[in-house]
């Protein structure tokens, strides 16, 4: 099929390094009958990452006779492959990537939505470009991550929301580690990104934030996903994980430094942390009817933007653990 998930094509081409990366078995360090929830966590401040140091997850899992193992930090490709190779049970991603997975009938299920206003994602014009609006980007280069991923979605949604022609800009795929150099050297005229990478661009002297996700009706949030095998075989343990994430979210609402401290741990400078501290604090929500409706709307956008051929029925790829 033409256009069959451009993001997944990119992932398949790149994903070769993580199989056997950690070599952790499901009963590592535990009795044979003990369920071990193995989390492949990312170097970002989502709650599946921050919870590894707080004991909240272990507390909830202990109530159902299970334990936790935290594997990482891994970049998204490594995390994806660590789970699909059987060396972990769950990880985190963006809702757009999750739609791509569902469109390819993958063996993943979402179990917790980490929803925020969208102010932590956006498009930033590079210093010295003189770009003051989205329309000024016509004929310019915008750095994104993978085709069909968050940056690509933000550009398409921002231009659609503004009634502009996205075909009149050039999208340049970059590895996240190359964002800062490309942004500061003139290799790109703007960057579409999120979280720490967005904050780093915003903190660059002379940069201009053009638009954020909350201004364009973005459906792009964070989402926590598990292998269907783990979700099917250990529903009580996965429900305990969900409860742990809810508790971690509540802790962050009361003390947002949980999030900024994580960024500091992963190497963010003071200027970047200051920008991050202004982002809204996300909350953990179940994959209920309202969340599924939003994700189905996102899937329809992905079809409209040419990222996938056909929208999947998201309800087949989620579990509602609040029921």
Describe the protein.
- With 323 residues, this protein is an alpha/beta fold.
- The chain has 2 domains: 208 residues, 3-Layer(aba) Sandwich (D-Maltodextrin-Binding Protein, domain 2), CATH 3.40.190.10; 95 residues, D-Maltodextrin-Binding Protein, domain 2.
- The protein contains 13 helices and 11 strands.
- It has a 5-stranded mixed β-sheet with strand order 7-6-8-5-9, sandwiched between helices.
- The longest helix is centred in the C-terminal third of the chain and has 20 residues.
- It is globular and about 60 Å long.
- The protein starts with 5 loop residues before the first helix and ends in a 19-residue tail after the last helix.
Task: Summarize this entry quickly.
38% of the residues lie in helices and 18% in strands.
CATH homologous superfamily identity of the largest domain: Periplasmic binding protein-like II
E-strand count: 11
If classified by CATH, what would the architecture of the largest domain be? 3-Layer(aba) Sandwich
The Rg value, from CA coordinates, equals 19 Å
Main beta-sheet strand count, sense and barrel state: 5 strands, mixed
